[in-house]
Design goal:
This protein has 242 residues and is α+β, with helices and mostly antiparallel strands. It has two domains: 83 residues; 146 residues, Dodecin subunit-like, CATH 3.30.1660. The protein has a four-stranded antiparallel beta sheet with strand order 1-2-4-3, covered by helices on one side. The longest helix has 83 residues. The radius of gyration is 49 Å and the shape is rod-shaped.
Length: 242
């Protein structure tokens, strides 16, 4: 039996064409959907990266600010240390170890120190002499002189500090005490050496002289490095002479 197809060929070709177009449309829609999803994914990733970059930039700026603050603190610390050292030099121009070494260097044979006390007191500022009427008239004609300005300027209170030294010790006799006072008077850092007390002192049947001296550190004294080395070297040698 022979099959006879009564459907026209044009109709069949038209259906095949429509089916093919539909498949193409579906594939195009799928492709566009995939491209749209990929674009959205890329945009989301870019947005996240931009947010990360902003966070990193903000953190870097904070770190830079912290470093700047730390550098400012270090600079202030150096300035404070410099000021502290300058103040220490003004208040204590001669280190106590050097002062003690100088006191022990001048000890005569047989003399020993028992007590040493340092006291800093505020000295009084001496007022300048009142100018005469002739001097005032001359200065009025010349104008304010630099000397007058310097005299009127207040003195730094730290420069008025006086270091008083109370010394106590024992000696074989008053002769050694006098030698010690003479050596202290000739010292480059001491001034106003005076005897406060000298009395008899017995130790294990031996009669000694117990003395008390008072002195003052010279004002505006500044020791060089060579002076300090000389005092220290004498101190090392004088230990064996006590």
């Amino acid at each position: 039996m022979v099959d006879v197809n009564f459907v026209p060929d044009d109709y069949t070709q038209s259906n095949d064409s429509h089916r093919t177009n539909f498949i193409y449309l579906v594939l195009f829609a799928v492709l566009m959907t995939a491209l749209g999803g990929s674009f959205a994914y890329v945009k989301v990733g870019q947005r996240d990266r931009l947010a990360d970059e902003e966070r990193v930039s903000k953190k870097l700026a904070e770190e830079q600010e912290a470093i700047k603050q730390l550098e400012d603190l270090q600079a202030r610390r150096k300035e404070m240390m410099k000021t502290a050292l300058t103040t220490a030099e003004l208040i204590e121009p001669v280190p106590r170890s050097i002062l003690l070494a100088s006191l022990t260097n001048n000890l005569p044979t047989g003399v020993s120190l028992l007590d040493l006390k340092l006291v800093q007191k505020q000295g009084k500022q001496t007022a300048p002499a009142a100018p005469t009427s002739q001097y005032r008239a001359a200065q009025a004609q010349k104008g304010s002189a630099p000397e007058a300005k310097e005299a009127a300027a207040p003195v730094n209170p730290e420069k008025l500090l006086e270091t008083h030294i109370d010394i106590g010790g024992v000696a074989p006799s008053d002769l050694e005490v006098s030698k010690y006072m003479e050596r202290m008077t000739n010292s480059t850092i001491l001034d106003n050496v005076e005897l406060v007390e000298s009395k008899e002192y017995k130790v294990e049947g031996n009669t000694l002289r117990q003395f008390k001296l008072r002195a003052m550190l010279k004002k505006d004294v500044h020791l060089t490095k060579e002076d300090v080395e000389v005092i220290r070297s004498k101190a090392v040698n004088s230990v064996w002479n006590f």
